[in-house]
Design brief:
Largest sheet: 2 strands, antiparallel
Structural class: mainly alpha
Oligomer: single chain
Number of helices: 11
Mean pLDDT: 89
Distance between the termini: 52 Å
Low-confidence stretches: 27-36, 251-261
Number of strands: 2
């Protein structure tokens, strides 16, 4: 077995540079007031962590985390930004587990936890454990249609046909309970999470669906291309080889509807 390639700061900085500068703003509390976090406007680290996890490189996830934390310290951010970054890492890995497999997500979360300062660790459950399955299904239906657009019904029909339990689980548990929690990762960041895991997992049909979904969620063409490229570079660095071509973003954008915003909860 070949030796694992190290994850250098230069490699991580290159990944970060691939994502275009954005006009989006992320505000965090600092000294009792809200300030803009330049680090959090670039979601490269979410994509990289998930791609490493899916590529079965759990030891690389804390390397990405520590690199981002160093950038936060150098920018003068306080613990509120650090806490949000830590939560985004955990949530992205958790959400990616439905695609990569939860053994990989657990291994990556464990590796991350081992370097996580106690002050940044989670002690409580973020999701509403009292939500009924009917509520989860309603949440999942909204997100499902937002992600898949005019393909929503045909994809649902496909899953219901191949195995009804898959259709129910995907919409109610996958999109309702798992992906539909948007207090930590936005719907767009969740789309990036899914794209990263699907690319590292070599599943072209689903990659195409979710590249489309990210565009529908409000990302620019350049941003989605960057997410695709970051995922590919991480997977290649981790020794992944593809049996299929990774779909291009431009090839599936001609019939997109204008981006819309989504509110999962009424």
């Amino acid at each position: 077995m070949s030796a694992l390639r190290p994850v250098s700061s230069a490699f991580l900085n290159n990944l970060k540079s691939l994502f275009p500068e954005t006009s989006g703003r992320v505000l965090v509390e600092s000294g009792g007031r809200l300030v803009e976090s330049q680090v959090l406007t670039n979601p490269w680290f979410i994509v990289a962590a998930v791609a490493f996890s899916t590529s079965n490189r759990p030891e690389a996830v804390p390397r990405v985390f520590e690199h981002v934390m160093q950038g936060l310290k150098e920018s003068g951010s306080d613990t509120s930004a650090e806490r949000l970054v830590a939560q985004k890492f955990r949530e992205a890995l958790f959400k990616s587990g439905l695609i990569s497999g939860y053994p990989k997500a657990i291994n990556s979360l464990k590796a991350l936890h081992e370097v996580m300062p106690e002050s940044l660790q989670d002690k409580t459950i973020h999701r509403d454990t009292r939500a009924s399955l009917a509520e989860c299904e309603a949440t999942g239906q909204k997100l499902w249609r937002h992600v898949y657009g005019d393909k929503a019904d045909s994809i649902q029909d496909l899953l219901d046909t191949i195995y009804p339990d898959m259709g129910w689980f995907s919409k109610t548990i996958g999109y309702g309970l798992t992906y539909g929690h948007i207090d930590i990762l936005s719907p767009l960041e969740t789309s990036y999470t899914l794209v990263a895991s699907l690319i590292a997992g070599d599943t072209p049909q689903q990659i195409a669906w979710h590249l489309d979904g990210a565009l529908r969620g409000g990302a620019t063409l350049q941003e989605v291309q960057a997410v695709r490229e970051i995922s590919i570079q991480v997977a290649k660095h981790s020794g992944i080889s593809w049996q299929h071509d990774v779909p291009e973003v431009a090839a599936i954008t001609s019939d997109l509807e204008p981006p819309t915003k989504i509110a999962i909860s009424d």
